[in-house]
């Protein structure tokens, strides 16, 4: 699913109203989730793995300084922050995996994240992959999120496909990364970017959206209404 979302902060590249960022070249961060027909991953596993994949890409040495992906990462983040989740299986997955990128694994989920590409310039191996139909289920309710760990809280009021929710979780992780001090970023990376993705209860959601933690709002291009709150990024260091 394609997303372009906003947190509640002035001047953010995720804002939905038109800004100078709209005049910059537009790039998108591609994520491909492996969904084999007979053995799909659990939904929560896929969401958490997608969020971690975004963090791994942001922290990778090739994305920083003079790294080979640094310029395109800068161009991507200087314009609208877009992430698109597609699905692949079998030969499609193998061809996608041959392109430069990083594969991140969860309990069973596999998500490959690629350096940003121009909005209208996708590699053919990725362009032909399906966006729609990324529907996954949890075979059993996920365990409660650890109280002392990072949690990306999903809105209880919105029904999102797995692909849409994966992109939203990626946005939430991205916002947490931006808001953390450098030392906390390094500690999170050293620990392997542990995180949970859970749907908040109605009362908890009201508390979270009033807490001052980073909030993702949807731009309304797909599935849900513009301005909808989709994710609150809750990291222990941000609670302080």
Automatic annotation (TrEMBL):
The entry's keywords: Hydrolase
An annotated Gene Ontology molecular function: hydrolase activity
Reactions accelerated catalytically: an N-acyl-L-alpha-aminoacyl-tRNA + H2O = an N-acyl-L-amino acid + a tRNA + H(+)
Span of the signal peptide: none
Pfam families named among the record's database cross-references: PTH2 (PF01981)
UniProt EC number: 3.1.1.29
Ranges for region Disordered: 1-22
Protein name: peptidyl-tRNA hydrolase
Origin species: Streptomyces chryseus
């Amino acid at each position: 699913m394609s997303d372009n979302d906003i947190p509640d902060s002035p001047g953010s590249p995720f804002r939905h109203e038109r800004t100078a960022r709209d005049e910059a070249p537009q790039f998108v961060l591609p994520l491909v989730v492996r969904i084999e027909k007979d053995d799909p991953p659990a939904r929560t596993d896929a969401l958490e793995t997608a969020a971690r994949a975004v963090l791994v890409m942001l922290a990778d040495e090739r994305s920083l300084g003079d790294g080979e992906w640094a310029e395109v990462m800068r161009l991507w983040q200087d314009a609208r922050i877009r992430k698109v989740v597609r699905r692949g299986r079998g030969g499609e997955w193998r061809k996608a995996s041959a392109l430069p990128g990083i594969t991140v694994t969860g309990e069973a989920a596999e998500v490959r994240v690629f350096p940003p590409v121009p909005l209208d310039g996708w590699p053919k191996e990725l362009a032909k992959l399906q966006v729609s139909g990324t529907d996954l289920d949890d075979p059993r309710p996920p365990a409660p999120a650890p109280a002392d760990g990072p949690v990306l809280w999903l809105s209880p009021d919105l029904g999102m496909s797995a692909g849409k929710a994966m992109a939203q979780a990626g946005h939430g992780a991205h916002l947490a990364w931006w808001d953390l001090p450098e030392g906390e970023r390094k500690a999170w990376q050293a620990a392997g970017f542990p995180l949970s993705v859970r749907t908040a209860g109605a009362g908890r959601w009201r508390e979270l959206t009033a807490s001052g933690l980073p909030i993702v709002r949807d731009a309304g291009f797909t599935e849900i209404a513009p301005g909808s709150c989709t994710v609150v990024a809750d990291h222990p260091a941000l609670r302080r």
